[in-house]
Amino acid sequence: MGNISPFGTTWGDFSANSANFMSGDGRMDNMITYKTPNFAGFNVYAQYSFDNNSAADNNPDADVTAHGTEDKSSVDRYYGLGATYKNSALSLAFVVDSTNYSTDFYGSDVDDALTVSFGGSYDFGVVKPYLGVQYFDNADYSTIGIVDSFTDGGADRGDGWAEGWAVTVGTDIPVFGGTAKFGVSYIDADYESYAEGTDAFKGDFSAWAVSAGYQYSLSKRTSVYGALSYASFEDKEDGASSVKPSAVEAGLGLVHLF
Questions:
Q1: Residues 6+ apart with CB under 8 A from 139
Q2: Separation between Cα atoms, residue 66 and residue 116, nearest integer Å
Q3: pLDDT per position as a tens digit, 32-85
Q4: Domain locations in the chain?
Q5: Distance spanning both ends of the chain, measured CA to CA
Q6: Alpha carbon separation from 239 to 163, 168, 202 (Å, rounded)
Q7: Order of strands across the sheet with 77-86?
Q8: N or C terminus: which one in the chain shows less Cβ crowding within 10 Å?
Q9: Where are the beta strands (DSSP E) in the chain?
């Protein structure tokens, strides 16, 4: 996902990066991964997680000592299939992945999650534009970074899943011996809660962010960077008033590769 945004998957909790505006998970437990050799710039990736600690994590009433059976319906299982292409100027990435939710998912019969993501960049020398798009269905909305940042992982409304889409666009521009970075991202989705012990509800949310940054290399191993971002979030439960928080974020840093 770092291939489809000038800010990769980092540069802050409210920056216009792909991880903040697209559904996805970081590390998975019990994962096996296969990566093909490079064929004329192409690589294909396949992943499968036999058990992502779901029985205890998804149901607070579950007995941790009675965790579900690995690779069975009593635990979450994850799978993903992706491909990348790179040549001297063009970089592309495509991913389809899904979480097969356990039968102990808050006592609910939740359909499996599905995400489809595509994007890339092209380096023209004087400018390097980026574009990324994603469709997601039944995605745990706590896996969407901007939602997690604005709603404490959804804790203020109960957990739930979402269906929607996201897009991120941006560019790198060489300037003053470094790289200026600009990006805008947007997400729009419907959601439904599933928290046990509370009344289920439905609603929708949207968010957007704009970021500007600069990175300068002091040497082959050391660089400095800075970024300024503004993000706005709108959350509306059906039959309730909209909640519209926003955030301004600024950061400076230094990176040294050992």
A1: 23, 113, 114, 115, 161, 162, 163
A2: 34
A3: 999 999 999 999 999 999 887 655 555 555 555 556 777 777 778 899 999 999
A4: 24-112, 124-258
A5: 25
A6: 19, 30, 9
A7: 31-35, 42-49, 77-86, 90-100, 114-122, 128-140, 160-175, 178-193, 202-217, 222-237, 246-256
A8: C
A9: 31-35, 42-49, 77-86, 90-100, 114-122, 128-140, 160-175, 178-193, 202-217, 222-237, 246-256
